[in-house]
Amino acid sequence: MDTGVFQLIIQKYAGKIYNTCRRLIAGYDAEDVSQEVLIKIYRNIDKFKGNSDISTWIYRITINTCREYWRRNKDYVKILELKEDIIIDGSNTDKGIIDREIKKYITEALMSMDMDKRTAVVLRDIDGLSYEDISKILGVPIGTVKSRIARGREYIKKFLDDRELL
Amino acid sequence: MTGNFYEFYASKYTKRGIKVDCGEVKKSLPLYIDGTLKGEEAGEIERHLAGCEDCRSEMAKYIRIREAMSGFEEMPLPEGYELRLKERMDAGTRARSVFTKYFAAAAAAAALFLGIFFANTGSTKDKYTADSARSTTSGIQTADNNTFKSPAKKAAPQYAENREGSVDKNIKAKQNVPSALQTEEMPDIESQDKAVSEEDRGNEDTGEAPKQSLYGIKSAETASPETEASVEETLKKYDAVILRTSEENGYTVITASVDEDMEERLIQDLNSIAEKIEKDDRGNLKIFVRSD
Prior knowledge:
The structure holds 2 protein chains of 2 kinds. Chain A has helices at 3-24, 30-44, 54-78, 94-112, 115-126, 131-138, 142-162. Chain A is 73% helix and 0% strand. By secondary structure, chain B is α+β, with helices and mostly antiparallel strands. Chain B folds into 2 domains: 2-70, no CATH class; 81-186 and 209-290, no CATH class. Chain B has 13 helices and 5 strands. Chain B has helices at residues 2-12, 22-32, 39-51, 53-70, 81-121, 125-132, 137-145, 151-154, 158-163, 169-174, 192-201, 224-237, 260-270, and strands at residues 214-217, 241-248, 251-257, 276-279, 285-290. Chain B has a 5-stranded antiparallel beta sheet with strand order 1-4-5-3-2. In chain B, helix 5 crosses helix 7 (137-145). The longest helix of chain B has 41 residues, at 81-121. Chains A and B meet through helix 1, helix 2, helix 3, helix 4 and helix 5 of A and helix 2, helix 4, helix 5 and helix 11 of B.
């Protein structure tokens, strides 16, 4: 593979891949896993024929790699503290503190739900993808995507409700 | 009184007289909040919300969560990220170059061996053809170990057979590997998306792979570079990603990550090559090769 092309891919997508990995596997080992994704891209880019958008293809590799990592390490990851993954926005106002708490518990809720729902919710509500794009990335019908997102959002709401954070 | 009547009416009935209770509305809210619901379904929910404070409160919670999630910021790549990526990739390239160096010699030795086998067996040609189509990697092992494949090796997994054609075609061409050794090209996969998806996702529904801490030990009689090349090639065959290569107590230790559903078969293949195989606490394989 042309290293120049790969360098362009790194410049354009490495940050997105890294952040998606952080959200799907709680930040822990996100660097290792995202680099594994980039190596897979490097090895397979010649086979990419442009039948779909390259970002869809890259998302798919990212999600499948995270899924595989999670399957092998979920018990290990679950015991880790999640606070490192919470974005500190620097605001010390009441609202800022509440926002941080909510984000922290949303992250915790995401990590405690199954990977199918988590992936759908992250792609929609954090990455802002359309239902159609998510359907293509995950290879499931749009109805399934909607169902997973609805159940995922319900789960998060209940998780926060139980802690009286809403 | 009129307001109370309206709220009661709105919470129980639509204009068309269809009953929409709070339970149904609350079930629909997760999708209603981002405009996914359309037409009459959305209209019924709107009418219900107009008169139901409890459901409006629920909707506000979903909106609050959605706003918080859209405010998750992108983190920059950690310092030194690209450098560490390059190091990982260089480690893989270095390993592959070792493979390239020894591939021709190993393949030639395999060709010699198989030629003798041909001459001696004659009528067993059909059997040979089937066996030779199995693996070019097996040629390396045959040359290295100067012995037949182990029974486990003979029962090469289907996956290994299918992946054969994907072994670096350029290397094969450059090294002029005898055509008798060249396996069939893997048919082009129509959709790369599908190919990658299957490779990456193919193990979603499989059961847990057996967890072992020590997979096997064999005596060290193979020369290190060839053995290392065999290990690297076997890892490549199973799309394993080499995380690092290090030296430990006289061993070259290759740490690699492989999809869970490939793990058992990879270990089976590696057992005849590596000194021992362990699993680290992250589930990665540590393959020990004698480095004398």
